[in-house]
Amino acid sequence: MKGCPDHATCSREVDSPVGGLLLFATRKGLAGLFFAHRAPDRQAPPDDPGNPHLNAAETQLAEYFAKQRQSFEIQFDRQGTTFQKQVWQQLSQIPFGETCSYGDIARRIKNPKSVRAVGLATGSNPISIIVPCHRVIGADGSLTGFGGGLDIKHKLLTHEGLLLGLC
Question: Is 31 within 8 Å of 79 (Cβ atoms)?
């Protein structure tokens, strides 16, 4: 891949109904999906039109927003602690159109007292939407923190058939 050598990251900005999305990938897989208005404060590396992970993410996100896709089939290059990766794996298991709480995730990883740590790991998820942290809500059913902002979380859940009619 011309623009993304073995050790480097490449990026691409794509439009979506919830605003610009900034994708990051390596040769190994998708490494990040951030909302452009809240992307990490760093200069984006160059795009690589031949990067299969950027191409797959862009295509599958377009299908998701067109209501033609409910799950993603993308290879990841996740960077995080073992605990974070456990939580992110559980986030990936939350079905389209469903939600769960931080406590539910803590119980799924067999560490029910780790609710706050689960919240921190969820908040540090580097691959929004595709690893659906927007599907995690408070134990009382309330919308809780989200890296893209609660307005975008609301839009994503509404897109998935939830929260219809709520303001």
Answer: yes
